[in-house]
Specification:
By secondary structure, the protein is mostly beta strands. 0% of the residues lie in helices and 48% in strands. The strands form four sheets. Strands 1-6-7-4-2 form a five-stranded antiparallel sheet, with no helix packed on it.
Length: 216
């Protein structure tokens, strides 16, 4: 998805919009840019960071207001190749971990920002591993953080590039299930047996766990 200009949004307009509820006959879907599925926020590092969301409004004439009560969060409108796009940006944080909220199209998105001492979050990855026959299949695991406001990101190891897909969700918040496909063994792939992993990183960018998968 190609994004061009970035246009400032007057986030101080209090969603006469958000306070009064979603307009009648309007529905909204807010997703992490270029991804499908539920999205309620994610983490950013202490040095500052951002993430983008796509909004699908039905009908397309429905307004998509934005607002944040947090001075360290800004929301700008982007121009993707379809629909509406918004970028949520967090300023640098020189203190402890903090969380804030960005309201986009009547949906509250949590921004979890690491502090100078890290994310202050711990994670469980359940299960920690899976195995597949030559025919391949669908891998699945659940990310369980110590705090439902803890943000995280997934990263597939380079060793799985030629025989497995990227996880369906690359960034998220709180407890969430992750799935991805392990391809059937074939030509132009590493020989069997083979192994790779999907790493989970916290808002500070630290590796906090992984799901290992192998194929024989």
């Amino acid at each position: 998805m190609v994004r061009s200009s970035v246009v400032p949004i007057l986030a101080t307009v209090l969603l006469s919009g958000c306070g009064g509820g979603t307009p009648v006959n309007c529905t909204y879907t807010v997703q992490l840019a270029q991804h499908f599925g539920p999205f309620h926020g994610t983490g950013v590092p202490a040095g500052g960071g951002d993430f983008s969301v796509d909004v699908v409004a039905t009908p397309s004439t429905c307004p998509a207001p934005t607002y944040t009560p947090d001075s360290w969060i800004t929301i700008t409108q982007e121009v993707p190749d379809r629909g509406l796009g918004f970028r949520i940006t967090a300023a640098a944080n020189t203190g402890a971990r903090r969380t804030g909220t960005a309201y986009v199209a009547y949906q509250a998105l949590t921004v979890d920002q690491a502090g100078t001492g890290g994310s202050a979050c711990t994670f469980q990855i359940i299960p920690g591993s899976s195995s597949f026959a030559a025919a391949g299949g669908t891998a699945a695991f659940v990310v369980v953080p110590s705090d439902q406001r803890c943000g995280w990101a997934t990263e597939r190891s380079a060793s799985g590039e030629d025989w497995s897909d990227e996880p369906g969700i690359s960034r998220g918040l709180g407890t969430m299930g992750i799935t991805f496909n392990v391809r059937a063994a074939g030509a132009n792939q590493p020989p069997l047996p083979r192994q790779a992993e999907v790493r989970i990183k916290d808002s500070a960018g630290v590796n906090v766990g992984s799901h290992t998968y192998n194929q024989q």
